[in-house]
Amino acid sequence: MAQPARFSAPQRLVESVRAEDTPSARAWLAQLPALLEARLAAWGLVPERIAEPGGRSSLLVHAHRADDLEPVALKLARPSGEAAALRTWAGRGAVLLLDEADGALLLERLHGEIPLRSLAEPKAMLEATSLLHRLWVPAPAGHGLPSLAEHARQLGDRIAERRSLPGAADAGPLVDEALEAVALAADGGGWLLHGRFRHGRVLAADRAPWLAVAPRPVVGDRAYDLASLVLDRLDTLAASPGPRGAARRRLARLSEAVELPADRVRAWTLLRAVDTALGSLAAGGTAAAELHLEFAAWL
């Protein structure tokens, strides 16, 4: 693809942005071709291909430097705090940020076709908890990132608003218990969190076995990050013999591996599971909603 203007956004990204249906989202999507062309030119990059199917909120282009053929990845995304987190980690446990400008990130190229999810679950969980130990660092002064306390309040408001959805009537006790977790955000500390840590957001790399990508960083309680890992691969866990016991053992093992109180991890997991379930109900995803509510009940 020699002409940057011929690049088109993946269908999944287009559908996601259009579904949001806000002026800022539509404007960002319309400006993508021009922004892509400008960044390729400014950074002296030769585009190779667009990563497919790609994300729902960003465009990732594989490219290389014209002068030395170094493989890189160019990411175009709306503001999310990702750059601030990557600057803080400076390649320690996460993809290395090479440059940034105008909402574009120039990243080292990882092996996107080899996510941590490609490993068997026990090995993947071991690698994931090891990586979390490296990512959890005190948030830098003046970071400007959202606090988990504020994010948790937003989750609580969203859950409370959606609890009357058809299909959620029987989940009242779980919803109540999940909402109690919002109070945990008040004393969770000032840790830099990935925000959406799971096997699919950890990729194989050349300078390290595995590196985290695509954070949605917040600052607060580390147990919030671990809850994402507890919730990963629910379909596999649900199909295992004795899923209720398996769910509890997974939570206990992961909590022990990173030395966090299991009760805090359980509370955050309930909050995230219920929020995901009600979000799925709102979008018409009954099967996903039932799976997450069932998992919450197992805990």
TrEMBL record:
SUPFAM superfamilies: Protein kinase-like (PK-like) (SSF56112). It comes from the Bacteria. GO terms for molecular function: phosphotransferase activity, alcohol group as acceptor. Signal peptide: none annotated. InterPro entries: Kinase-like_dom_sf, NH2Glyco/OHUrea_AB-resist_kin. Pfam families: APH_6_hur. One of its GO terms (biological process) is secondary metabolic process. This is Streptomycin 6-kinase. It comes from Kitasatospora cineracea.
